[in-house]
Amino acid sequence: MFRLIKIESSKLFYKLKSWLGPMLIMILVLTAFPLSIDISQFDLEKFYFSIIVVSLLMTSFLATEGMFEEDFEDGSLEQEYLVEQDFYKVVLSKIFVYVCFIGVPIAFIGAIFSFANGVAIGNFINVFVSLSLSNLLLFNLFAFGNALSINKGAMLGVLTTLPLALPVIILLGTAIRSIQYGNGFLEIISLMIGMGFLISAIMPLIISTTLKTHID
Amino acid sequence: MISVIIHKFSSPKSFVQITKTLYPLFIFTGLFMLIIGWTWGLLFAPPDAVQGNSYRIIFLHVPAVIFAELIYFFMALCALMHIVWRVRLAAYLIKSAAPIGAMITFIGLFSGSIWGIPTWGTWWQWDARITSTLILFIMYLGILTLHGSFSNLEKSDRLMSILVVIGVVNIPIIKKSVDWWSTLHQPASISVSGGSSIDPSMLYPLIISVIGLGFTLISLGILTSRSYILGREKNKKWVLDHV
Amino acid sequence: MFDIAFNNVNEIIGMNGHGIYVWSVYSIAISILVVSFLIAKNRIKGVKRKIKIKNAPS
User: Based on CB atoms within 10 Å of each CB, which residue in A120, A146, B124, B192 is the most buried?
Assistant: First the structure.
C-alpha cells in the first residue's frame, strides 16, 4: 500500500496540469467573481459561499479528469491487475494521493477566501474541515465518473457523476449554513465524516469493478 | 435457489413470448383507464377552491413524476440482477426503460413548469423538488449516453448497471425533498401509507390516472424492450423462428 | 361527484382563463406518448425486416 502511495505521488507530481491547474482555477474564479460584478460587500458576503461551493465542484472535477485514462492507455492498469489481481488498493491509494495533494490545498484556498469575505476568524477551521470533507466525497465520486468514462472524454464523466454530487452539495450547503448561523455544525460534520469513511471504503471497490469491466 | 428461479424466468426468449401475449391486455387497460381518469379529472372533478381549474394538470403531473421515480427503481432492481446474477434480460430492460424514464421525467418537469405559471407566478423555481427532478432527468440522459459510448455492448451493459445502482441514492432525496427543505412545492398529496390530503372527488380520478399511465408505460416498455431484445439477439435461432 | 363541472363547451375550452395551460400540457404530453409508441412500433418493424433480409435464402 505504501509502495502504491509513493508511486502515485510521484506520478502526480510530474503531472503539473492535474494538480496546479485546479488550484489556479480556484484562485482565479474566487478572485474574478467579486471583480466581475459590482455589488456591495454586504451582498457579496451573503452569497460568496455559493461561489466557493461551485468552484470546489468544478475544480475537483478538473483535478480528477483523466485520473485513470493515462494508466489505461499506457497499459499500467492492466499490469497492475496482473500483479495484484485487483484494483482496490491502486484506486484507494490514487484517491488518497489526489485528496491529500489537490483536495486539501483547494479546501485551504477556499477557506482563506471565505475568511477574506466575512467569515469570523474562529470559523476558519470549520470551513476548512467542511470543504476538505466535501472534497474527499467529491473526489471519490468523480473518480468513479472517470473510471466509467475512462477514455471517452470529460463530457461523459460530467453527465454520469454530476447528479451523484447532489447529496454532497446539499451536505456542504447545510454545513456552511450551520457555520454562518452558529448551530448544529458538529452534527453535520459528524455526518460528513461518517459518509467520508463509508464512501472512501466502498467507492474504491465500485471503481475497481468498473475498471475490471474495461480491462476484461 | 434464487439464482435458478431468476435464470428460469429471465430468458429473453420467454420474455418476448410472454409480453407479446400480455401487450394487448396492458395497452387496452392502460388507455381505457387513462381516458376514464383524465375525462373524469378534466370535466367532472370540481374546480379547486384556491387554484381554480389549473389544478387539473395534477391528473397528468402527479402520475408522471410517480413513474419517473418508479422507473428508476425498476432499473435499479434490474441493474442489481445484472451485476449479481449476470442476467442478460435485466440489462436489456434497463436500456429499454431508460428512454421511457427520461420521457416521463420530461413530461413531469414540463407539466409542473406550466402549472407553476398560474399557481406560483413563475414557470421555474430552483427549489429542492424541481431541481432534484431535473437531476433525475440528467441521470437518465447520463445512463443512455454511457451505454451509447462503448462499442462493446456487454461492457456497456455492465457499466450502465453499476451507474444505475449507484445513482439510486438520489431517489430518496427526490422523494423527501419537499419534507426536508422549505420549498414552494407542496408536500405529497397522496401517500401509500394512507392519510391523503385530497378530496375523494379529485382523488379517485387521480388514482385511476396513475394506474392508467402505469399500464400505458408498461405497454410502451414492452414495445421498446421487444425491439431492443430482437436487435441484440438477432443471431439467435429463436429470434429467427420468432420473426 | 359525477356532475360535469362546466356549463358549455366554451367553458371547457377556456377553464376560466386556465384552459391554455391545462390543454397545452395534456396535448403535448399525449403527442409525446403517441410519438413514442409510433417510434417503438416502427423500430420493431425495422428490426424484424433487417433480420428477415439478413437471413433470406440467396
Answer: A146
